[in-house]
Predict the structure.
Amino acid sequence: MTGNDLDGQVAIVTGGVGHIGRAITSVLTERGARVVVVDLIGAEVANAVLALVCDVTDSSAATATVAEAYCLHERIDILVNCAGGGARTGFVDLTDHVWFAELNKNLSGAFFFMRAVLPYMLSAETGAIVNVSSISGVIGGLPAKGSDGRSGPAYAAAKAGLIGLTKWAAREYGGRGIRVNAIAPGPVLTSAVMHGYDYGVEDYPIPRMGRTRDMAETVAFLCSPASSYITGEVVKVSGGVGM
Ligand SMILES: NC(=O)c1ccc[n+]([C@@H]2O[C@H](COP(=O)([O-])OP(=O)(O)OC[C@H]3O[C@@H](n4cnc5c(N)ncnc54)[C@H](O)[C@@H]3O)[C@@H](O)[C@H]2O)c1
């Protein structure tokens, strides 16, 4: 079912100013949701009802941001943790600083937002959470051609951790009306990725780069009643790479 299947629902999308986050905001809005965008960067996002500046790695800011969204809309039905990104520093050269920064941005931030929204979802006995992981977290870094083209170990570890967190919460809260899933995108046609990395997608089962819309449609499905019997899953949206 598509159309207005998210009518009246309130969604928080972290990283909503970014490429994939903007597409998610558009698709959720098309389905009828009111979307609160959260990002480090303050910017207007088409269709968002509200844009809040928040560093997702700051746990008290995360709690305050979720409370602000709830105060304004009096419900939170959907959380999409999309804030993140990765460095390509190799293993031996990886500094403590970069290691912790990657874990915080890609994993701790999602935990802080999940912890903050869960009390609202639990009292409503309904909710859908979708975490944007990465195929890197499934296969241990996505190779690209060239010496530094592979996503780094901290990013892969953080995105793999996000999958573990997704499954833990799915097991815990499935009986209380809350579903928790993840997507694992392959290489997506965003300006960040287009900065010179060649993933050799012509050899993928679906021989093209992913589009932000591909990610957003899958997220919307996982938020919608059409996926009401699906929880704890990691949907690879990767053109078949990592199957
Ligand atoms: N682009 C790809 O090929 C690809 C592949 C796999 C997974 N992903 C994941 O998809 C998500 C979105 O990626 P994208 O390509 O749209 O990147 P992007 O850089 O366009 O968007 C990421 C957004 O997250 C925000 N952000 C980063 N750190 C933050 C923080 N501490 N607090 C709040 N906001 C923060 C940024 O400001 C940005 O708006 C990321 O989690 C990324 O790891 C992307």
